[in-house]
Write a structure and sequence with these properties.
- This protein has 419 residues and is α/β, with parallel strands linked by helices.
- It has 18 helices and 14 strands.
- The chain folds into three domains: 5-220, HUPs (Rossmann fold); 246-323, Tyrosyl-Transfer RNA Synthetase; 330-414, Roll (Structural Genomics Hypothetical 15.5 Kd Protein In mrcA-pckA Intergenic Region, Chain A), CATH 3.10.290.
- It has helices spanning 5-13, 22-35, 54-68, 81-84, 99-113, 128-131, 136-143, 148-151, 155-163, 169-185, 197-209, 246-253, 261-268, 273-285, 290-305, 308-323, 350-356, 363-371; strands at residues 18-20, 40-45, 72-77, 123-126, 189-193, 216-220, 334-338, 343-344, 347-349, 375-379, 385-386, 393-395, 399-404, 408-414.
- The strands form three sheets. It has a six-stranded mixed beta sheet, with helices on both faces.
- A hairpin with a 2-residue loop joins strand 8 (343-344) and strand 9 (347-349).
- Helix 10 (169-185) packs across helix 11.
- The longest helix is centred in the middle third of the chain and has 17 residues, at 169-185.
């Protein structure tokens, strides 16, 4: 607790969208320094899928900032709330997970989060610890603390209500359960993205109902996913996991739209706001080419979550295979045999081939890759051509090299044919 109040607030404010309310937060910091008592800083994680992605690291980094200031962080794995499913930012109820899936997913969080936070100094809790023992009387008491009118102030609930889309009572319980987490651990501060602001505010209300001093909120920005449009999300499959293969991490970063380079730089590689503005000015006036800026960004992201050697290898691979339009050595290209099941008439659809050969996660993902301009086919003894039509078909027999998503290369051939 040697840092001054202003120094602490300066670090806390860095890269945030909003401090709620900032005056109360300052009072908590002052009291913490005077009494030499660390603040309890809460972050909840919903283990709906096993990977922590780059978007999560924005708020994890803020958690690390609090650690560096000497405060106590509490990482809450929402194993119980995973059953309910949080629809924040969604148009429908998120499907609940079964217990085993939630537990398995949660196990991966710790090692991954330790890439950013000091895990050894973190308090890790599962909210089933206090939510499972609640009886029906306890639940009714919790529900009594908040009104339906207030609940419908949440944007996604209001939208669905006005559209006549069903909202289950159980969905109303999610922000209440998340708020009760703050009561159970006596949180002084809670962190979350802008899409969680309502839920975090509910925590303030519920803490007061239970006789506690309400927590302050540190609201963090969201980053757009690799599609450049929607927030990075595991559910939307537009994310980059922090434990992904370095080549994939580098290649996916190279796919982001140019207009997001500065934002990713500031939030993911800890550029200052001033450095970001300088970079964006250079991009605008042409002093630096977007491709070079993205290469530097991708290099630093891989370096941060893997190593400098991995970053250098990923960059060399990208430059050799994609920037210079060179293909890997013959012996390094995997051969994929096209089976009769993939053939319709006398041709095979490109999206079917990509999905079957694991060049795309699904046919929908294959369509997105094609639309983004990242799919090429080079027939044997022919020139490489970009695939621009998602309905494109390859005539049989197929013999050639298919590249997809700037990350994967295969040699495809009709079964029985020799290239």
């Amino acid at each position: 607790m040697e840092q001054s109040v202003e120094r602490q607030l300066e670090l806390i404010r860095r890269n945030t969208v909003e401090l709620v309310p900032e005056g109360e937060l300052k009072e908590k910091v002052v009291k913490s320094i005077k009494t030499n008592t660390p603040l309890r800083v809460k972050l909840g994680l919903d283990p709906n899928r096993p990977d922590i992605h780059l978007g999560h690291t924005v708020v994890l980094q803020k958690l690390r900032d609090f650690q560096d200031l000497g405060h106590h962080i509490v990482l809450i794995v929402g194993d119980f709330t995973g059953f309910i499913g949080d629809p924040s930012g969604r148009d429908s109820e998120r499907a609940a997970l079964d217990w085993n899936t939630v537990k398995l997913n949660a196990q991966t969080y710790f090692d991954q989060a330790s890439k950013v936070i000091d895990y050894e100094k973190a308090e890790v809790r599962y909210n089933s610890e206090w939510l499972l023992p609640l009886n029906f009387k306890d639940v009714l008491g919790l529900a009594r603390s908040f009104t339906v009118h207030r609940m419908l102030e949440r944007d996604d609930f209001e939208k669905r209500y006005n559209e006549g889309t069903p909202i289950s009572i159980m969905e109303f319980m999610y922000p209440l359960a998340q708020a009760y987490d703050s009561v159970a651990i006596r949180a002084d501060i809670e962190l979350g993205g802008t899409d969680q602001r309502f839920n975090l505010m509910v925590g303030r209300t519920i803490q007061e109902r239970y006789g506690q001093e309400p927590q302050c909120l540190v609201i963090m920005p969201l980053i757009e996913g690799t599609d450049g449009e929607r927030k990075m999300s595991k559910s939307l499959d537009n994310y980059i996991g922090i434990s992904e293969d370095p080549l994939d991490m580098y290649g996916k970063t190279m796919r982001i739209p140019d207009q997001h380079i500065g934002k990713w730089r500031q939030l993911l590689t800890l550029y200052s706001h001033e450095a970001r503005e300088e970079l964006e000015t250079e991009l605008k006036n042409g002093t630096i080419h977007p491709m070079e800026a993205k290469k530097a960004l991708a290099f630093d992201i891989v370096k941060r979550f893997h190593s400098e050697a991995d970053a250098r290898n990923a960059q060399d691979h990208f430059v050799k295979v994609f920037s210079e339009r060179e293909l890997p050595q013959e012996e390094n290209i995997q051969i994929f045999e096209i089976t009769p099941e993939l053939v319709s008439g006398n041709s095979v659809r490109i999206i079917d081939l990509m999905a079957a050969a694991d060049l795309a996660k699904s046919k929908g993902d294959a369509r997105r890759l094609i639309k983004s301009g990242g799919v090429y086919f080079k027939p044997e003894n022919g020139d490489e051509e970009k695939i621009t039509d998602e309905l494109h078909e390859l005539k049989c027999p197929v013999n050639g090299i298919l590249r997809a998503g700037k990350r994967r290369v295969i040699r495809c051939m009709t079964k029985g044919e020799i290239i």
